[in-house]
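User: Hi! Is it possible to get a structure for several chains at once, not just one? Here's what I have:
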Amino acid sequence: MITIGQKFPSFEKKAVVSIEKGKEFDTINSEYLANEDNVWTVMFWWPKDFTFVCPTEIAEFNKAFGDFSDRDARLIGASTDSEFVHLAWRNNHDDLRDLKFPMLADTSKSLAEDLGILEPNEKIAYRATFIIDPTGIVRWVCVNDLNVGRNVKEVIRVLDGLQTDELCPCNWEKGQETLSN
Amino acid sequence: MSESTETIKEILTAMSADETHRTEALSLLEDGNSRYLRDLKLNFNSALSSEFITAKEIGLLGLSVAVNERNAVLIKFFQKFASDNEANAEEIAEAAACASLLASNNVFYRFRHFTQKEKYSQIPARIRMQIMMKPVTGKEFFELMSLIISAVNGCEMCVNAHEDSLIKMGTTEERIFDAVRIASLITSTGKLIF
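Assistant: Yes, the chains can be modeled jointly so their relative placement is included. Here is the combined structure:
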C-alpha cells in the first residue's frame, strides 16, 4: 500500500462533477496534485455506489466541504464504479444531488490497484483516505475495512496538524539552529 | 496661529490627515507649546526615507506597524503611501496579515521563551501560518516585517530569531537596522496621532 512520504501515483480518470445535463463529466488527473498554489488534496474512497454506509459518509464530507476549502484542500471522492453509475447514484439519492466535490470513477481499478487498496475477493476499494500535500506527497493514509465508516472531523483534525508546522523563526530555542537552515 | 499649532498642521498635512485633527495627547503638547513637536515632525519625515529600504517597502513596513498598533490614521496614510509607490492590493493585504499573525506568534512564543519549560515546547502550537510559506512580498521582506513587528511587541527571542534568519538570507545589517528605526519612529508617532 502507498504510505506516508511516497509520491501519490499518477492517474487520469473520468469523474462526475455535476448533475446538470451536458456538464456531468470531467476528467481529473494527477497533474494538479503538485501545485504552486499551496493546495492540498484529500481523496477518500468507498467500496460501492448504492450501498447504505456510503451516502451518509459522503454527505458528511460534503457538509464539511467549506472546512476543507478554508484549509486550501481539494476534496475528491472515489470508487471503482463507472462515471455512469456515479451519476445514476447521485440522481437517485437526495443527499448526493448537490455534492460540491467530484466523484472519481476508477473503472479500470488501476488507481486503487496502484494505491494497494483493492479488496482481494470482490476487487473493490477499502474505505481509504489520503491526504496529499502541495508537492504531491502522501502525508496521511487511513484505511478502514469495508463496513467501517469514517469520522470526517478526524480527517480535518489531521489536516490541521499537518498544516500547522511551526514555520515562524520565533519557534526557536537557545542552542537550536533556526528554521531557515 | 502659535508655532506649535503650525507644526501640528504641517505634520497632519504631511500625513494627509485633517489639519484640525487632535488627540488628547497632541492637545497637551500644543497647549504646552512643546519643543518635542518639531522633533516629532522631523522624526516622522525621516521614517519615510531610507538608503536601504525602498519607498514601497517603507509603505508596507509602516502599514504593518500601523495595523499592529490599530492606528486608523496611520493605516490610511501608509496604505496610500504603499500604493502610490506601486505596492499592489495583495502586498498591502499581506502587510496587514503579517501584523496580525506576528501578534499571535509574539504572544505565544514569548510565553514559551519566558517559561522555558520543556512541556510547553512539546505541545504543538496549532497556529496556522500558511502565509509564511510563499509570501507575495517575498521571503526576505516578510521576514523583515516579522522582525519589526516582533521588535514593536517586545519579544526578545522572536527578534533574535528573525534577525538571525535575515542575516542568513544575506540581508545587510544596515537594512535591518533601518527597518527597526522606521518601526520605532512610526510607533512613537502613533502614540500622539491616531
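Residues 56 and 85 of chain B are 5 Å apart (CA to CA). The mean pLDDT of chain B is 96.

User: Great, thank you!
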